[in-house]
Each structure stands twice: as C-alpha cells, then as structure tokens.
Amino acid sequence: MAIIRILDPSVVAKIRAGEVVDRPAAVAKELIENALDAGSRLIAIQSASNPDRSIRVQDDGSGMGREDALLAVRRHATSKLERAEDLDGIATLGFRGEALASIAEVSRLTLSTRAAEELTGTQVEILGGMVISVSGVGRAVGTTVSVEDLFFNTPARKRFLRSREAEVRALARVVWSYALVSPEVHWRFRVEGREDTELPTAADLLERWQVFYGRGSAESAAPFEHDGAGFRFRGVLGAPEMARANREQQIFAVNGRVIASSTMAAALRQGFGNLIPGDRHPVALVLIDIDPSQIDVNVHPTKREIRFRDESALFQATRRAVESAMRVYVPVALGVPPAGSMVPEEGSAGGGALVLEPGADPGHEAVAEGPPGYASGAGAAGHLFDASREVVAGSQWGRERVVTADVKESLTEIEVPIWQLHDRYLLAPIRGGLVIVDQHAAHERVLYEDARIHLCGESGPSQHLLFPRVLDLSPPELEELLSMEPLVRRLGYEVSLFGERQVAIRGVPAALAEETAIDALKRLLAGEETHGEITRDDPPEERIAKSWACHAAVRSGQPLDPVERRALFDRLFATSLPHGDPHGRPTYVRVPLEELDRRFGRR
Ligand code: ADP
Ligand code: MG
C-alpha cells in the first residue's frame, strides 16, 4: 500500500517552489530532514573530500516499500501533505515532495530503502532525472540516499560552487546544526580525509553542546527552558566570554527545523544586554516549540526562513527567555525589592537622600545599543535586572558610601555572597566560575555614566547642605570653576562666589557623601591626575565626567560591607558598558572554573 501520493495540482500551486538545491550542503539538509521525518535514531552522513562528488545519508528510519520508493523520487510526491489546508499545520520538516526529485534531476542518485514490513529492500538508480534501474536489495530497515556527481548536467550551477573548503564548511554547518538540535539522534559524520565524528545519543542539549564546545564551556554555559506567549523555549547560551565576532555560532530551530531568523538573532543579542561588548555576538542554541498554525514554513524554497504570525511577539518572548537565562552570570539582583518600593519620603532625614534615577523602571521597550558612555539609565541592561538602580547616597560622616542606611534595611536577604579581597576587589561566584570586580574601577564606571547623563541631559539631583562649606581656591582653580560652572551645577553642585578667592558650596550631588563630593570637586578644580589618561581633546563634558568619576569613586583600600558590595555589583551591571572603566581598563574579570581546574591539575 502506497503512502506517498502525488500532490493535487491545486496544492502544488500553493507551494512556494524554487531552487531547492544550490550546493552540496542543501542536498545534505534535505536528506537529513527526510531522515528525521522518518523517525530515525541513527543518521550517518558521509561525504567525499569534494562534497559535490559524493554525499551519502543513511538512516534507520521507517524506510519505504517498493511502490513508495518509486514515487518518492517523482516531483510533488509526498507522504506528509495531502490537502492545501494541511499547509497550515505542518509538523514535519518536509511537505513539498520536491527534494528528492530536484536532487535526482541534477545528479546520479541512488535510493536504497526497506520498510519494516518488507522482506527485501528496493534500490532505485536515477541519472539526471531518468530512472535507469530498479532492483531488490538485501538491507536493514531504513533508507540510504547517495548523491554523486552533483550538477554534472548543469555546468552553470556547478560553476557557482565555492572552493572545496567552503563547501565542506557549509555542509558541516548543516550537520552540526541538526546534531545540536537533536541530541536524541545518534549522528555519524565523515568527510573523506577531514572529519570523522561519532556522536552517540546524548541525554540533553547541554550534553550535546559539550561535545562541540568542550567540557569547560558546557560548565559555564547557561542551559535554559522558558515558556511564554505561546512559545516554548529550550536551549543553551554560551557564557559571555565565548562571544564571537560573527553570528556563525548561533543556531535557531523551530519545531525541530533549523532556521535563520534575524528577529531571533536581534532578540538574542539584546537579551545578552551589556554582558558582552557591543561588537560581539553570543554563542547560542535556541529551540522553540510552537503551535504549527502560528508559523508559515511555506515562504522560502529552501524552508530556511519561516514566517511567524506575530514576529514582534517572537522578539519579545525570545528576549525575555534569554534575559532570564542570563541572570546566572550576574550574582546580583536576587532578593532585591523592586525599584518602586524604595522611594523615600520627601525630605527623609538621616543618612542622605536616596536617588531614584529616571528610568528606574525601563519597561520593555526595545533599547538600542548606545554609543559608549551615552546610554541612559534605561540602557540595554536596564531591563536585564529588576533590581533598583538606586542609590549611591551619602553618609554624613564623610566616608564614601555606596548605599545608605535605609537602603541597607531593605536589602536584608543576601542570597549570593560577595567577598571583598584586600579592600580592593570584590569576588562572587557565578555560573561556571568566578567574577572579580575592581571596586574603584567599577564605581568609576557607574559615576561616569551618571555624570554623562547629567551633563548632557537632566541635571543631577542636589543635596542641600545644612551648613554651606567655604573653600579657598587658587586663581587658576577659580578660573577653572568659572569656566566649568554650568557643568558643575549640572552634576548637582550648588556653588556661589564668596569673596575674592572663596566659594561657598551649598549643595552637593545627592549621590555622594558630602566629604567625598567636596573632595572630588577640589581635585577636579585642581586638575589633579586621575588614574587614567584624560586627553585635552575630549569635550569638556567628557573630561569632567571622567575626572569627577575617578575622584568621587570609592577608593581601593576602602572596606565595603556586604550590602554596599552588592549595590556596587547591581549598579555596575546596569551600566551601558560594565566591562571597562571610562579609561578603558577592565572593571571585572571572569575566571572560569575550567581555568582553576587546569591550574590545580584536574584536567
Ligand atoms: P518531502 O520530504 O517534502 O515529502 P521529498 O522529496 O524529500 O519530499 O521526499 C518524498 C517522500 O519520500 C517523503 O514524503 C517520504 O515519504 C519519502 N522519503 C524520503 N526520504 C525518506 C527517508 N529517508 N525515509 C523514509 N521515507 C523517505
Ligand atoms: Mg524532504
């Protein structure tokens, strides 16, 4: 009994036909998809060193009876689709009944197959679309398709092939992609003289991932599952340090089909937020299961791109899934009350004003990656962490402070320990390793971004001083102050001339302790050296932001209590560029467990 049918012409008309095979990799893709549709548990791909010479895909799937084998190689012959309505709910990878026919037309194709019910198998040989032999063969249940001399009768297409290396790479990418998304299948991949890989069935995506990227990378990777808005996500995200210069290592699959999707790529990138530099791309495997009626796979001849009914829902859902998975890389924002709950009462006394920045609730609008240092508080990572971005407020006692007493009370539960080392570095465990933050550099980055926002946008809040402070300034300092007065005011200082060489300070930036704020201003006016170079060519806003941030930041050598440590983490990772201080030196380093293991001779 034949299960393959020739499609009705009215159905054929609805199918987005076109060039299905343009290179050897496309042949492999079609044959692999057929093998997966046939429920195979073992798929072996073998290629000559020159893939257009020969590619063979062998599977242990359902196989075909004799009649089906003959139908299979005809155009529009498929067992996967019958009526046009079926196009709305396609659950198989194939459905057009075109692939085998298209391949057979431009090669020497041998199909050998046996269904479980049959005693012997069938072998069909086709040359340039003509059946040249049909015979019985003894063979195991399953199917083997071998494609030789691809494009032998279409020299024009053959000329379009790239170098042998490029074709092998493209072929390998197809195989690896499918192997990564289907760990339940045993894969075998051989390229003559190049490649000989055996991938036994793996328990899950992470186990398969580990074969590709190594054990250490699997330990630091973030496997995830996430349900939302009709999308079921599964996948693995590479640790931020694995990020690459291109998107080659991003694999997306929808209902088991490997696809290209610029929407998913953009959402993935945004989900990583500021954890990787702007010019890098995450390594990731993202699988989506979705009701087939919500997608249209019949839009592209090679089915490489599909259409989602709601592309923007796809974007949002993907970004959320990635964002929540990325939390394992930032040991903060756990148990932190939502931003709104920390709004102080007007004029609250005590340790100092609590500053809630505009954009403390960045919502979920799409946020572009801004240029360095210019992003607002609602920047890329604003939504990465629900933690409040509060709070650098002063204590009256003149010591630099990262948080105030009232914030401290609200941050009671500290779930992830953060250690301080030599009053200089902050250490915290993260997935797959350890992160070490330079406390001064980190705070500098935080203050620098605040300063940029205030110097170029909304002025920073000021904390009025009960007793104005009078400073004696040298003539050059006074001149400096006069020239930068409007900018200094934007930072939150309230300064007025007080006699010949004196100024009265009536208010300081609310984000700093009084002493720190005044000290930073003095150093700024004195043009005191900062840790990093500030060029005279920088525009004044940039110079002031950099130098003020450096003078005001918590110093190396200052003890921080656990809440301050975490607040610093929170704020650092909520900046637009947490990787470096304004002078370009790193603010944190990640130490993978793998490296420690290596040093201890464990690997
Ligand atoms: P489609 O996959 O779109 O149906 P193909 O030309 O790729 O079209 O295959 C035609 C038919 O041949 C399939 O519908 C299926 O019934 C059968 N077939 C192809 N490859 C295999 C295989 N590896 N195992 C079992 N059946 C197969
Ligand atoms: Mg097919």
Can you put this structure into words, describing what you see?
This protein is of the alpha+beta class and 603 residues long. The protein has 3 domains: 9-201, Heat Shock Protein 90 (2-Layer Sandwich), CATH 3.30.565; 206-327, Ribosomal Protein S5, domain 2, CATH 3.30.230; 332-344 and 351-603, formyl-coa transferase, domain 3, CATH 3.30.1540. Bound molecules: adenosine-5'-diphosphate (ADP) and magnesium ion. Magnesium ion is lined by residues 30, 33-34, 94, 99.
Briefly say what this structure is:
This protein is of the alpha+beta class and 603 residues long.
Topology:
Layout: E1 5-6, H1 9-13, H2 24-37, E2 42-47, E3 54-59, H3 66-72, E4 77-78, H4 99-105, E5 108-114, E6 121-127, E7 130-137, E8 142-148, H5 155-159, H6 164-181, E9 186-191, E10 195-199, H7 205-213, H8 215-220, E11 222-228, E12 231-237, E13 250-254, E14 257-259, H9 262-272, E15 284-289, E16 295-296, E17 307-308, H10 311-326, H11 405-410, E18 419-421, E19 425-430, E20 433-438, H12 439-456, E21 462-472, H13 475-491, E22 494-497, E23 502-509, H14 514-525, H15 540-552, H16 562-573, E24 588-592, H17 593-599
Parallel strand pairs: 2-9, 13-15
Antiparallel strand pairs: 1-4, 2-3, 3-8, 5-6, 5-8, 6-7, 9-10, 11-12, 12-15, 13-14, 16-17, 18-19, 19-20, 20-24, 21-23, 22-23
Helix pairs in contact: 2-6, 9-10, 12-15, 12-16, 14-15
